[in-house]
Amino acid sequence: MALIKIQKPQAEKPAERAHPRDFSGLVAELSHEKPMSRRWAARDLAEYPEATVALVECLKQEPDTSVREVIFTALTHIGHFSAVLGLVEFLHSEDAALRNEAIDALKQMPDEVAPVMHGMLMDANSDVRIFAVNILESLCHPMVESWLIEVIESDPHVNVCATAVDLLGEVGSTAAREALLGLKERFPDEPYVHFAADLALRRIDEG
Amino acid sequence: MKADPEAAQSMISEDDFLKFQEYFYRKTGIQFENAKRYFVDKRLIERIEATGSQSFRSYFTMLRFQASGEELQRLTNLMTVNETYFFREEYQFECLVKSLLPELTKRRDKGLPIRIWSIPSSSGEEAYSIAIYLLEFWKGLAEWDIEIISSDIDTKILGAARQGIYSARSIQNLPARVLTKYFKRTSEGYQISMELREAVEFTRVNLSEPADTRSYRDFDIVFCRNLLIYFDELSRKTAAETFYDAMRPGGFLCLGHAESMSRISSIYKIRKFPEAIVYQKTLEAR
User: Fold this and answer.
1) Separation in Å, CA of B266 to nearest CA in chain A
2) In the CATH scheme, what architecture does the domain B91-280 have?
3) Whole-prediction pTM value?
4) Which CATH superfamily is domain A18-108 in?
């Protein structure tokens, strides 16, 4: 026995190619019984912007975490507006893991997320609005502070505002001053809001 | 005709840099932060000059649309960092022989060789270190066949790895006994023995390109150290998922000391061995 060189990387085994690797073949492969085949199908579908609908549909019933991760990565690679719309749907999901993965994926697509951010922040469901603020947490976009100001100026739910004010404490500038003072007036009986707003104001004043 | 370097430098505007940054990331998965601007500009200017291009714009057009892709490969070679040395982060090689291989061999049929993938290969120090460690410190080699494949995106550095000639700096951590046993002093430096050069297969792979990695399968152990730190989040995730499909169930992934899979992906199980933390594709994974 020894150090050997016998198995060079070889071509994919034919048995694992149940369908042709064109668009419709890959979409069909997303239902393959083997998770590895489903992962490879999702990975290859990242080349097709039109695959977002199929990938999003697949996520709704995919039981295997590893396949789900690859699908999320594929959707992020596609980075198309339709992928964002599909991912936003998952913010309403009862499945916490699916929701968190969608949030993580959306954080990586600032330019594509920007056009729908206002809509997410106006969602009827306050939990979804909190998730939208969670996305802002690490969204590399110049509008982040403006969106947060918009939240604390108008959102009626204290928890949404509390999440936003926490973040403003980290990223806020003097532009957020008036809104922070206004927030304290809007929620006079919420000690946490006052505490967080004062903290944010102090940080802003300290520069 | 050669471009004037100063003129070329002034030709690479902020917009040009951003354009190049985005394109290079898309093609290779390597993200250059703005802080790397000088590093990138210097190499771009070198290639603008070498290709006789009149401007960044004409060079970039050639780079993007050249049918052979030769210039992109040349530039990639220039942009990737290739510094490493023998027995770097040695505790992981200890982990390999003291913990990983004993666990793997307990559940394996002896007829099947153990496959190790070292990526990025760079000039071969890591792959050869693994080979030396196995020869020196793993008695199991008497009973098992081991295959080592080492890959890199840079074809030039792969050539150097196959040649196996190293500087004094590169071999400085090797015990004198090991150096004498496996290296020969030449006018160019220290050349690793033919036995070891023949024991490692060096291949060209772009980790961000599924067509390149698709055939990499059935590995028991993957070493990918100090590469993912240069990747952005999406490329890191892609790499983690690629390794997952390249490994057999129960396989181990070794990352560099500053890297953590927990921040990249949740599909691996964290294994804490006395020598090191490694990441495992579970036995149940399919």
Assistant:
1) 8
2) 3-Layer(aba) Sandwich (3.40)
3) 0.80
4) Leucine-rich Repeat Variant (1.25.10.10)
